[in-house]
Write a structure and sequence with these properties.
335 residues, alpha/beta, Rossmann fold, 6-stranded parallel β-sheet, 17 helices, 45% helix
C-alpha cells in the first residue's frame, strides 16, 4: 500500500525541512510500504495512492476531489488559522470557511491539533453528525529525544530569548507574534535589563518586517535574525538561551515551544490555540494588554519567571501523546 502527502507549497524541499511535514511522513512510513510527498495535484492521478494526507483547507479541496476520483482514502490536517475569525474577517473568512466545509465533506477524517481548531470545525459541520464525526483531535509529533530533567533557572541579569518562525511572508511573522516579542524586549530593556532576541527561520518577506519592527523600537542590534537552522542548532539554542518566546495570536499546536519545554527551557507564551493545550501552566503566560498598559507589569512578569516550576506529570504525558505512533494511529485507526 502507498500513501501521498499533499501540500500546496512553492518549495518541495520544505517537506524535508519543516518539522510537521517531516514527522507526518515518518508517521505514514510506519503504516505504508511507500510514502511520497508532492505539491502537484496531478501526482494524485499519476500515482493513485491508497491514502492521501492533504494539508490545510483551501487549495487542497482540489486535491481532495482528485483523491476521491481515484478512490483514495482522504485525511485533511493542518492548523485551521485560515478559518479563524481571530485572523481573518469579512468575505475572505466566509470564502475560507466554505472551502473548509467542502474539505470536511470530502474527507474520511479531519485531524486537528488543538481544541480551538476542533471548535472551529465543529461550527463548520453545522450540527450534522455525519460531518462532526469526521473531526478528530490529535497532537503533532514532538521530539522527546533531547528531554532534560534539568530545568534552567532564569536569573534576570540578561534576557536572551529565542523564537522560531517561518518568515516566508510577513503575515506569518505577525501571526506568530514576532512584533509582540520585540515590544517585550523593548519593555525589558527600558526596565534596565540587557536583552537579546534571536529569531530563526526560513528567509522571506517576513525578515524585512522583523527588521523594520526592530528599527522602530530601537532594537536593531538586540534583535538578531540568524536564518534557517538545523535541528542540532535548534537544540543548542534551547540549551544556551534563557527563554523561548511563542507569543502567537494563533497557534495550531506549538511544536517548537513543546520541544523547548522538554529540553528544560522556560517558555513564555500567549496561551493561544494549541499553546493552551500543550504548554499551558507549564510555561509562563504573557498578558500582552497589561504589558502595553500597566507600568507595573514587568516586575510582576519577572517574578513569575524567577519562580517558575514545570509539572513533570504533564511532561511525561507529552512523550506518549506526541509520538510518531500516536500520530499514525490518529490518521488510520478504524478508517
Amino acid at each position: 500500500m502507498n500513501a501521498l502527502l499533499y501540500s500546496k507549497i512553492s518549495d518541495v524541499e520544505l517537506f524535508a525541512r519543516v518539522g510537521f511535514y517531516r514527522d507526518d511522513i515518518k508517521a505514514l512510513a510506519t503504516r505504508f510500504s511507500q510514502v511520497a510527498s508532492t505539491n502537484k495535484i496531478f501526482d494524485i492521478f499519476k500515482h493513485k495512492p491508497d491514502f492521501v494526507l492533504a494539508y490545510f483547507y483551501s487549495y487542497s479541496v482540489f486535491a481532495g476531489v482528485a483523491a476521491k476520483l481515484v478512490g483514495s482514502k482522504l485525511i485533511y490536517t493542518g492548523g485551521a488559522d485560515q478559518i479563524s475569525p481571530l485572523l481573518t474577517k469579512g468575505y475572505k473568512l466566509k470564502i475560507r470557511q466554505v472551502l473548509a466545509f467542502f474539505c470536511l465533506c470530502l474527507a474520511d477524517r479531519v485531524v486537528v491539533s488543538c481544541t480551538d481548531d476542533e471548535v472551529e470545525f465543529r461550527k463548520i459541520s453545522m450540527g450534522f453528525s455525519w460531518l462532526a464525526n469526521k473531526i478528530h483531535l490529535a497532537n503533532h509529533v514532538v521530539d522527546v529525544s533531547k528531554r532534560s530533567t534539568h530545568r534552567k533557572r532564569f536569573d534576570g541579569k540578561k534576557v536572551v530569548a529565542f523564537t522560531l518562525c517561518w518568515l516566508g511572508v510577513a503575515s506569518n511573522a505577525y501571526r506568530k507574534g514576532i512584533d509582540r516579542a520585540i515590544v517585550l524586549m523593548k519593555a525589558l530593556k527600558d526596565f534596565g535589563l540587557d536583552v537579546e532576541l534571536i529569531v530563526a527561520g526560513t528567509e522571506g518577506a517576513g525578515v524585512e518586517y522583523v527588521n523594520a519592527l526592530s528599527s522602530q523600537q530601537g532594537l536593531s542590534s538586540e534583535v538578531k535574525y540568524i536564518g534557517s537552522i538545523t535541528e542540532e542548532m535548534k537544540f543548542s539554542l534551547f540549551a544556551e538561551c534563557d527563554i523561548y518566546l511563542q507569543l502567537s495570536r494563533y497557534e495550531g499546536f506549538g511544536v517548537a515551544a513543546a520541544e523547548a519545554m522538554l529540553s528544560g527551557m522556560l517558555v513564555l507564551h500567549s496561551n493561544a490555540g494549541g499553546l493552551k493545550d500543550i504548554i499551558g501552566s507549564n510555561g509562563v503566560v504573557l498578558d500582552f494588554d497589561k504589558l502595553e498598559k500597566d507600568i507595573n507589569y514587568i516586575p510582576t512578569l519577572l517574578d513569575s519567571l524567577y519562580g517558575f516550576e514545570a509539572n513533570y506529570c504533564t511532561l511525561n504525558n507529552i512523550e506518549i501523546s506526541c509520538s510518531i505512533n500516536s500520530r499514525a494511529e490518529a490518521f488510520l485507526k478504524n478508517l
